[in-house]
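Input sequence (239 aa), recorded before submission:
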Amino acid sequence: MGALSETWFADGYIDFELKKYTLLAYLQDINHYFTQSKLYPQLSDIIFHYNNLVAFRDNKQFLQQQFPKRLTAVNLQKLELLYEQLIADDELMAELENIIQYSLPQLNNTIKEGTEIYEYVEENLNIFPVGLIPLDTGEGYLLLCDGKCNNTLVYAYRLTIFERHDEKFRGIHTQYVQEYRKDLVNTIGHIKTMLIRERNALPNPAVYCIETPLVVPIDETLLPIAKRSLVKYIAGQAA
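Predicted structure, token format:
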């Protein structure tokens, strides 16, 4: 994927036509993946760039608060220096404002296309527990089945809670375990029994199955959406 730097709009020569070409080339590449129903990491990347532009437009001080993991100290310093230059250069400020004004709708339209794919996949997921669920659902297994109906993919999952500012967020980490061919023997109940027998680190794991009639890329679309949906499902059950 052709990538944009975190400060692409301020890198090098600030020229509207040049930045417009850079952005359109990036969006063309993103759309190429979206037409194949491949959402990640493209969707999260383009959302970052949209939010980054908005934050830069509104208040540069928000950058460090909102994007501590993506923006380095060097990039932050570059943006701060740019702001100082813009204050003294009305022509440069106008050019950058034109770039931002053009770029935000373009980014937003592409985000909407990716979001529509995301929502469509999410609406076609069926999540349900396999057997009895223990009180501690922080660790367990995710069984994933798509519309091919050939195999069941098994992932170990672990929920995490992290804080940013005054908010708490739930995250999820998964690790691929193995694949079972779907047949009369390898039912989801049998798979749970095999997991408990062969992986005694979790003697009483929470096991959830996510099924969909859709056939979409596993790693780029189905798994990321399934993970987020499982977090919401577990949080809803605990509420």
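Checked by second reader. Confidence is low (pLDDT under 50) at residues 61-69.
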